[in-house]
Design a protein that fits this description.
Elements (H helix, E strand, L loop, with lengths): L5 E6 L7 H17 L1 E6 L1 H4 L6 H18 L7 E4 L5 H10 L4 H6 L1 H9 L6 H15 L5 E3 L5 H18 L7 E3 L32 H9 L15 H13 L2 H12 L5 H27 L2 H29 L4
Parallel strand pairs: 1-2, 2-3, 4-5
The structure holds adenosine monophosphate and tryptophan.
Length: 329
């Protein structure tokens, strides 16, 4: 029997997830769980690099786990755990920092954006963040990293770090590959020139837990034509709505609106109604599963603890190999 390849990904516990996280990341995890060894982490150590309230953190971790499970991850098939429960992540990050060029860290788009956003208090964790992410990935001999496009640069740096380490200390790490979906970059509804993101504010995203009324209101207000789009091209907002219709709606509807657009007869209010219908239809069963799971938080914490117990021995084995290669043991 051939050995299964390993897939690893992480999501920050930043409250409830949005449809960008779902389409860009979680959706591609579902088929992977059938033919890969899947390891998914709620990355709490990454989340504390920006201001937060300690009292909220446990609830945010639980929310992220509920989202994963309600979306269809099967804890019998995948290893699901909280990053801080496996101390090898930070231990490996230190060792990797000694082969990571500082100049590479300064080039990272996410760092530049966050440094601008939190310019009054840029902490060191914000810049070393990608090294911790590389440690997450490399600890588990990962082959594929299914993420949204915004994380591609971090995975590329992980590959650089792995290669540099292997060259300096001998073949130790598997060099992982990124895996993207078709909807690798979902744009904001209120400002479709920017990536859909929680930090922009509620009108910019549809949360997986938004109720029907909220979803319809947010999609109805989505920005469509803003002017300045070259003839024959879709404006960013309309392109985003078409993409959402393709993902959440019916193929027949998609084709009908495509024809209407080509013929110049499209009514954006109708396009938006079809998009909202599709999202509501998709999220209703998800939300039902989520509320059922939320009634038993102890069970969810037990799943996460069990996941950490499965992850730890793999991480420990890698650490032993790494320390040996580096001449530390
Ligand atoms: P984060 O919430 O930043 O931890 O992101 C979790 C996952 O969702 C990562 O794989 C991101 O690349 C992905 N993601 C976040 N925002 C978007 C978006 N707007 N479109 C597609 N994927 C996204
Ligand atoms: N940095 C990722 C994000 O913001 C989250 C993350 C942390 C991650 N560690 C990872 C993703 C390892 C993939 C693999 O979305």
């Amino acid at each position: 029997m051939t050995k299964k390849h390993t897939a690893f990904s992480g999501i920050q516990p930043s409250g409830t997830l949005h449809i960008g996280n779902y389409l860009g990341a979680i959706k591609q995890w579902l088929p992977l769980q059938n033919d890969h060894d899947c390891i998914f982490a709620v990355v709490d150590y990454h989340a504390i690099t920006v201001p937060y309230q300690p009292i909220d953190m446990r609830g945010r971790i639980l929310d992220a786990a509920l989202d994963y499970l309600a979306a269809g991850l099967d804890p019998k098939k995948v290893t699901l755990f909280v990053q801080s429960r496996v101390p090898e992540h930070t231990e490996l990050a230190w060792l990797l920092s000694t082969v990571t060029p500082l100049s590479e860290l300064h080039r990272m788009t996410q760092y530049k954006e966050k440094a601008a956003q939190y310019s009054a208090a840029i902490n060191t964790g914000l810049i070393t963040y990608p090294i911790l992410m590389a440690a997450d990935i490399l600890l588990y001999n990962t082959h594929v990293v299914p993420v949204g496009e915004d994380q591609e640069q971090h995975v590329e740096l992980t590959r650089t770090i792995a290669r540099k380490f292997n060259k300096r200390f001998g073949e130790t790490f598997t060099v992982p590959k990124v895996q993207l979906t078709e909807a690798k970059r979902v744009m904001s509804l209120a400002d479709p020139t920017r990536k859909m993101s929680k930090s922009l504010g509620p009108k910019h995203y549809v949360a997986l837990t938004d109720d029907e009324k909220t979803i319809r209101a947010k999609v109805a207000k989505a920005v469509t034509d803003i002017g300045g789009t070259p003839q024959g091209e879709l404006s960013p907002g309309v392109r985003n709505l078409f993409m959402l219709l393709k993902e959440f709606g019916q193929t027949a509807d998609y084709l009908r609106f495509e024809n209407a657009h080509a013929g110049g007869t499209i009514k954006y209010s109708e396009l938006k109604a079809a998009v909202a219908d599709g999202i509501v239809k998709h999220l209703t069963p998800f939300q039902e599963r989520r509320s059922a799971l939320a009634r038993e938080p102890k069970k969810i914490w037990a799943i996460l603890e069990h996941g950490a117990e499965r992850a730890r021995p793999i991480a420990q084995k890698t650490m032993a190999r790494v320390k040996q290669a580096m001449g530390l043991i």
